[in-house]
Amino acid sequence: MKKQFAVIGMGRFGSSVAKTLSNLGFEVLAIDSSEQRTQEVSNIVTHVVQADSTDEEALRALGLRNFDVVIVAIGQDIQASILTTIIVKEIGVPKVVVKAQNELHGKVLAKVGADKVIYPERDMGVRVAHHLISSNIIDYIELSEDYSIVEVQAVGQMVGRNLRELDIRAKYGCNVMAIRTGDKMNIAPHAEDIIKYNDILVVVGTNEDLKNFEKTFAE
C-alpha cells in the first residue's frame, strides 16, 4: 500500500512538495487556510481542504492520524508552525516533517516533537554557493552536519584518466559512489573505468575533504 501524505501550507515550498508527491503517484491531502491557495492545487492533488491548522478539532476531523507523513510547510508564521507541529504530533501522526525558517525555529520544532526539520532556503543557498564556486559543480547535498554528496562534471584533468589514476580516495579522502554517462548510471565504478568528458561523478565525503576536492577540480 502506497504511503499517504498530508501537506499543511500551500506556499511555494508546500505546493511544490504536494505537486511532486502527487506526480509520483502518491495520495496527497493539501491543507491551507487560504481558499485561493487550495483552489490553485485542487486539480493536482488527491484532496484539498481549507482549514486552520492551529485548530486541533479541525485537524482531528480530517483524520490526519491515518496519514503516514505530514509535512508542515507553513511560511512566515513561526507561531502557527510550532503550534501545528504540536497538534499533529498529539493527534498521533507517525512522522512529521517541518519546514524551519532558521536554526532557532528548527531547535524549537525538534523540542516539540518534529521527526525531521528541513531548511529549504538555507539548503538551496548552500547548493547555489557551491555551484557558483565552479561551473562543473552540478549539485551539492548535505547528508549530515559533517558529510555531503557532490555531483561534479568531468572536465580538464579528470578526462581520459581512470579512477585509479585520479586516486581521489587517497588524495582527498572522498569516495566516488557512481558515474553517470548520459542517461546511464554506473553505481559500482571500477578502478579501471575511464572518465569521459561531461561524465558526472557522484562523490561522498566529509565537508572538509569535499571542499579540498572541489578547489582542486574547479574550473
UniProtKB/TrEMBL annotation:
Pfam family, one: TrkA_N
RCK N-terminal domain segment(s): 2-118
Protein name: TrkA family potassium uptake protein
Boundaries of every RCK C-terminal domain copy: 135-219
Alphabetized InterPro entries for the sequence: NAD(P)-bd_dom_sf, RCK_C, RCK_C_sf, RCK_N, Trk_Ktr_HKT_K-transport
UniProt-listed PANTHER family: KTR SYSTEM POTASSIUM UPTAKE PROTEIN C, POTASSIUM CHANNEL PROTEIN 2-RELATED-RELATED
Organism: Paenibacillus ehimensis
SUPFAM superfamilies noted in UniProt: NAD(P)-binding Rossmann-fold domains, TrkA C-terminal domain-like
